[in-house]
Design brief:
alpha/beta, Rossmann fold, eight-stranded mixed sheet, 11 helices
C-alpha cells in the first residue's frame, strides 16, 4: 500500500498536531490565519535562483490596477510566454509568496513568465480573481511591449486554485489560442463530487473541511458552483494540450485524474503524472525533497518543448 514519502511525514506530523490543537481550542478559521499558514509553508522554499531580468508592472483599468511581475531569462532572445496563476484557495498567496516558483519556471523553461497578483476572496469573491487574470491576458501585448516575445505562443500554468483559474480561461477565452495548459495539483471541482474528498479528508495538510470553508469565502455572494467547476465544462475539444501533475495523498487528486480522462475523451492531448507518495502543495515544500522539485520543473519544461 502506498504511503506518504518519508521526507513529508515529519512535516505532516507537526502540521496535524498544530491543526488538532486549533480544533481543540475552538479557533475558528479566518482569512488572516489562512494567509499566515501559507506564508509559514513558504519558509520551506529553497533560496531564490538568480534570473536575468525581473520587472514589476501592472495592468491599469478604470477601477483598479492589477499587479504583475515579469521574469525574462533571456532578454535578447525571442521566447514564448508563460502566464502563471498562483494557488492558495482563492484567498491566499501572492506574487511575492510565489516568487521562487516563478523564477524557477522562467529559468527552467526559458519562457518569459508573467505572474498575476489577482484579487483574493473573501474581500473580492468570485469572479473577481478570474476577471483579473483574464484582463492581464487581454492586455499582454501592451504589457510586454519592448520584450522579445512571441505573442502567438502563450501557455497557462496554475497550481491548486490557480489551476482552476488557468483552466477556466483556457476554456472560456474566445480571443486567444493557447499553446498549452500546465496544472499542478489543480482544484477543478467546487462541488466535492470525487471520492478523494472523503478518502483523503484529513491528515494530509489540505483537509476537506477547510476546502469547504475556502469555497464558502470564494462564493460568498452566490454562484452556480457546478457551472464554475472546470471538471464539468462541456465541449472540451478546443482545449490546449494539457499537463497535469498530481499528488496521490491530496483530496484534489481524483478531480485531476477525472479531468485528464475527459480531455482524452474529447480528443485533447493530455499527460498525467501522479506522485504516488506526495501531498498537496509539494512545490512549495522544496527543501523537503529538492530532487523531486528539480524533476517537476524538468517535466514542465519537457512538455512545453513539445509545443
Amino acid at each position: 500500500m502506498n504511503k506518504v514519502a518519508n521526507e513529508y511525514q515529519e512535516f505532516l506530523d507537526k502540521a496535524n498536531a498544530f491543526i488538532e490543537k486549533q480544533k481543540i481550542a475552538g479557533i475558528e478559521p479566518t482569512p488572516e490565519l489562512a494567509r499566515a499558514g501559507l506564508d509559514a509553508i513558504a519558509q520551506l522554499s529553497l533560496p531564490k535562483v538568480e534570473i536575468n531580468t525581473i520587472i514589476n508592472a501592472s495592468v491599469t483599468l478604470s477601477d483598479r490596477k492589477i499587479p504583475v511581475r515579469i521574469y525574462d531569462p533571456e532578454p535578447e532572445q525571442e521566447k514564448s510566454i508563460l502566464v502563471f496563476m498562483h494557488g492558495g484557495g482563492h484567498m491566499c498567496g501572492s506574487i511575492d509568496l510565489y516568487d521562487g516558483i516563478t523564477r524557477r519556471l522562467a529559468n527552467t523553461t526559458r519562457h518569459l513568465v508573467v505572474s498575476i497578483g489577482y484579487r483574493l476572496a473573501p474581500e473580492f469573491p468570485y469572479p473577481c480573481g478570474l476577471d483579473d487574470c483574464q484582463q492581464v491576458i487581454d492586455h499582454l501585448e501592451m504589457l510586454l511591449n519592448g520584450f522579445q516575445v512571441d505573442l502567438g505562443s502563450i501557455s497557462l500554468v496554475g497550481d491548486s486554485a490557480g489551476g482552476a483559474l488557468a483552466t477556466t480561461i483556457a476554456w472560456q477565452d474566445q480571443t486567444h489560442t493557447f499553446s498549452s495548459l500546465i496544472l499542478i495539483y489543480p482544484s477543478l471541482d467546487y462541488t466535492f463530487s470525487t471520492p478523494s474528498y472523503k478518502t483523503l479528508a484529513t491528515g494530509y495538510l489540505l483537509e476537506t473541511e477547510k476546502i469547504h470553508w475556502y469555497f464558502d469565502q470564494y462564493f460568498k455572494e452566490g454562484a452556480d458552483r457546478k457551472k464554475a467547476s472546470p471538471l464539468f465544462f462541456p465541449d472540451l475539444d478546443h482545449m490546449p494540450g494539457t499537463l497535469i501533475l498530481a499528488a496521490a495523498f491530496d483530496p484534489l487528486v481524483d478531480e485531476g485524474k477525472c479531468f485528464h480522462q475527459k480531455l482524452l475523451a474529447a480528443g485533447v492531448e493530455s499527460e498525467y503524472h501522479e506522485g504516488t507518495d506526495l501531498i498537496h502543495c509539494f512545490l512549495n515544500l522544496e527543501t523537503l525533497n529538492p530532487d523531486l522539485i528539480d524533476q517537476t520543473y524538468k517535466t514542465i519544461s519537457d512538455f512545453l518543448k513539445k509545443k
